[in-house]
From TrEMBL, chain A:
<feature type="transmembrane region" description="Helical">
    <location>
        <begin position="78"/>
        <end position="96"/>
    </location>
</feature>
<keyword id="KW-0812">Transmembrane</keyword>
<feature type="transmembrane region" description="Helical">
    <location>
        <begin position="188"/>
        <end position="207"/>
    </location>
</feature>
<feature type="transmembrane region" description="Helical">
    <location>
        <begin position="24"/>
        <end position="46"/>
    </location>
</feature>
<keyword id="KW-0472">Membrane</keyword>
<keyword id="KW-1133">Transmembrane helix</keyword>
<feature type="transmembrane region" description="Helical">
    <location>
        <begin position="117"/>
        <end position="135"/>
    </location>
</feature>
<protein>
    <submittedName>
        <fullName>Uncharacterized protein</fullName>
    </submittedName>
</protein>
UniProtKB/TrEMBL annotation, chain B:
<dbReference type="InterPro" id="IPR036390">
    <property type="entry name" value="WH_DNA-bd_sf"/>
</dbReference>
<dbReference type="InterPro" id="IPR011991">
    <property type="entry name" value="ArsR-like_HTH"/>
</dbReference>
<dbReference type="GO" id="GO:0006355">
    <property type="term" value="P:regulation of DNA-templated transcription"/>
</dbReference>
<dbReference type="InterPro" id="IPR036388">
    <property type="entry name" value="WH-like_DNA-bd_sf"/>
</dbReference>
<feature type="domain" description="Winged helix DNA-binding">
    <location>
        <begin position="16"/>
        <end position="95"/>
    </location>
</feature>
<dbReference type="Pfam" id="PF13601">
    <property type="entry name" value="HTH_34"/>
</dbReference>
<protein>
    <submittedName>
        <fullName>Transcriptional regulator</fullName>
    </submittedName>
</protein>
<dbReference type="InterPro" id="IPR027395">
    <property type="entry name" value="WH_DNA-bd_dom"/>
</dbReference>
């Protein structure tokens, strides 16, 4: 009897070590919710910029002759909003995940964290450069490119963290491709992908993994 | 029928060695400090267990440098993987038999 318990506990140990050493499991669902909220605020601000730009387009010819460039202004403001959203999303991502790691007494920074981040940020960085160029050359593709690159980055990183994130990745890629068919609705697709899906995914993850242990 | 106890590998009686092998089964190559952090061990303790595993031919050791610091990495050998799998199967069988 004690022998059997010994074997069962050995198997549990093995499983635990395999999982803990290969996957970053402290990623918190609340991080996703935080990023989603940041995206919604960002989308609202971007929407305001667009309508302001549209209003001004009535007297664009006057502006042009006065040496003002409303379009460059718009692009500059959008980049500023995007940087703000990124910073807020990363901050909330870090905060909730740090809290979760502390609660479960796991190290926040180890090889699994490094692996996950490298696998997430390599495609994300390539996508970022790509999107920045699209913003000036063919803005209609900005939102689909954001969604597709982000989805691929998530699928890539899912090998090193909770596998559920893979499904979020698939959804983002599909949304990005559908967005190609509706090029004028970029902001709406972007808001669904980065705002609503994040909040939905984060809530599901929180209920699945964290509420019981909290 | 063969008694499954015979297939239990004596080397894996130690939870630490079992832990090291578990980590090396799912990670291709791991360095000393990462192993130490994951298993929450002291240098000396981990080193002696790694030594035992290496002597038995279950893991291989590569010494290298990162800058001027030594960076020793460990990898499970084919023999090691096989031995670990057999050990797992034996554990499973024993649990099922007693049920």
């Amino acid at each position: 009897m004690t022998d059997q318990q010994e074997h069962i506990s050995a198997l549990k140990d093995i499983r635990n070590m395999m999982e803990r050493s290969s996957r970053f499991i402290s990623l918190s669902g609340l991080s996703g919710v935080g990023a989603g909220v940041a995206a919604l605020v960002g989308a609202f601000l971007a929407h305001r910029e667009f309508s302001r730009f549209d209003q001004r387009s009535f007297d664009r010819s006057a502006e042009y002759s006065a040496g003002l460039n409303g379009e460059a202004d718009l692009e500059f403001n959008l980049i500023r909003i995007a940087v703000g959203v990124l910073a807020a999303a990363l901050a909330s991502g870090f905060l909730f995940t740090w809290l979760k790691a502390r609660r479960s007494q796991l190290p926040l920074w180890d090889r699994t964290t490094r692996h996950m981040l490298v696998n997430l940020f390599v495609p994300l960085f390539a996508g970022g450069c790509f999107v920045l160029s699209l913003l000036f050359n063919s803005p209609a593709l900005v939102s689909p490119a954001c969604l597709v690159f982000y989805g691929l980055a998530l699928i890539n990183a899912s090998k090193y963290t909770l596998t559920d994130i893979r499904y979020l990745g698939y959804l983002e890629v599909v949304l990005g491709i559908v967005n190609l068919v509706f090029p004028g609705l970029g902001l709406i697709f972007w808001t669904i992908g980065f705002g609503l899906l994040h909040i939905l995914y984060g809530t599901v993850m929180y209920l699945k993994y964290e509420r019981k242990s909290a | 029928m063969k008694n499954p106890i015979e297939s239990l590998n004596k080397i894996f009686d130690s939870r630490i060695r079992l832990g090291v092998m578990s980590v090396l089964m799912v990670n291709e190559r791991v360095n000393f400090n990462d192993l130490k952090q994951m298993l929450e061990l002291t240098d000396g303790n981990l080193a002696s267990h790694l030594n035992t595993l290496e002597q038995a031919g279950l893991i291989s050791v590569q010494k290298g440098f990162v800058g001027k610091k030594t960076n020793t990495t460990y990898q499970a050998t084919a023999t090691g993987r096989e031995a670990f799998r057999n050990h797992l199967n034996a554990l499973e069988k024993m649990i099922k038999n007693i049920d």
